[in-house]
Amino acid sequence: QQPVQSPQAVILREGEDAVINCSSSKALYSVHWYRQKHGEAPVFLMILLKGGEQKGHEKISASFNEKKQQSSLYLTASQLSYSGTYFCGTAPGGGNTPLVFGKGTRLSVIA
Amino acid sequence: KAGVTQTPRYLIKTRGQQVTLSCSPISGHRSVSWYQQTPGQGLQFLFEYFSETQRNKGNFPGRFSGRQFSNSRSEMNVSTLELGDSALYLCASSLDSGRAYNEQFFGPGTRLTVL
User: Fold this and answer.
1) Eight-state DSSP code of residue B29
2) For B13-51, b where at least 16 C-beta lie within 10 A, e where not — what string?
3) Are A86 and A33 in contact (CB under 8 A)?
4) pLDDT tens digit string along A60-111?
5) DSSP letter string over B41-56?
6) Is the CB of residue B45 less than 8 Å away from at least one CB of chain A?
7) Across the interface, do B107 and A101 touch by the CB < 8 Å criterion?
8) For B56, which of A94, A98, A104 is closest by C-beta distance?
9) What is the distance between the alpha carbons of residues B50 and B12, in angstroms, rounded to a whole number?
10) Is the pLDDT of residue A49 over 70?
C-alpha cells in the first residue's frame, strides 16, 4: 500500500532539472508532496487532486496521472535550497483517509 | 501564526519504560496526526485525532496510544518501550475539512532514543 518513489536518491548540479516519481498500486484520490531538509520538519509543497485540481507553491510543478496511479514532481533549474528528502503521500479516498507516505527521495544539489 | 510545537525535542529512555510526547497544533487546527519516522522507512502513520476523538489509526501495536484535549493539544504515549521504538516522532496539524484536501503542517519532532 505504501507508494513507491523513484529514484531513491539523486545528485544534481545547480541549474539542472530533476523528476521525482511516485507510484501506487491503488487507485488514488489525491497525492501530496512534502520536502524535508536535514534536521527539520517536512514542509508542504503541493496537493494534486483527482479531477485535475492542484494547490501549492507556484514555483513547484507536478503532474498526476489518475489512470496510472502515478504522480511526478518536476524540479527545474535546481538551486542549492532544493536539497532535501522529498516525500509523496497518497490518499486512496477522499475525506479523512489517512495519507500513506513513500520512503522518500533524497535530492542533493551541489554547486 | 505560531507553528506546530512539540515537546520535548529529545528524549532518552530505557527499555520497558513509558514515554509521553506532546504536540500543540496551529491555532484553529482541529486535526492532529502522529507519525513515526525511521531511517529508510519514510513517515509511518500512527493515528489521527479530531475534536478529541481518534478518527484513524495506523498499523501499530496497542503500546502506542494517544489523546487529544479540548484545546486540540495532543499527547502520544508509548508504553513498555522497545529498542525498535527509537525514532523521530512527528505530529502534524491541519484544518478539519478532510485530510485529502488539506496540507499538513508538521512540528519539528521529538527524537526518542531507547537504550
Assistant:
1) -
2) beeeeebebebbbbeebbbbbbbbbeeeebbbbbbbbbe
3) yes
4) 799 999 899 999 999 999 999 999 999 999 987 766 778 889 999 999 999 9
5) TEEEEEEEEETTEEEE
6) yes
7) no
8) A98
9) 29
10) yes
